[in-house]
Design a protein that fits this description.
Pfam families: KH_KhpA-B. The protein is α+β, with helices and mostly antiparallel strands. It has one domain: K homology (KH) domain (GMP Synthetase, Chain A, domain 3), CATH 3.30.300. Helix content is about 35%, strand content about 25%. A three-stranded mixed sheet has the order 1-2-3. Strand 1 and strand 2 form a beta hairpin.
Length: about 80
Amino acid sequence: MIELIESIVKPLVDHPEDVSVVENEREHQIVYELTLHQDDIGKVIGKHGRIAKAIRTVVYAAGSSSKKRVQLEIND
């Protein structure tokens, strides 16, 4: 899943070397924390959050086979 998120996000940003994804597994959910370069946050979020919503939709669909809830957080 980490590779999927990175493969979606890296082509969108100007600083792909600063993209990192960390997986935190909790009792009933898996949280993926996406950290970016400060200048690239707007590019990943997009106008009115459309790009972030699309990325989250793909991640949720890919994680639907898991019994745990999958969540993506974009860190500043």
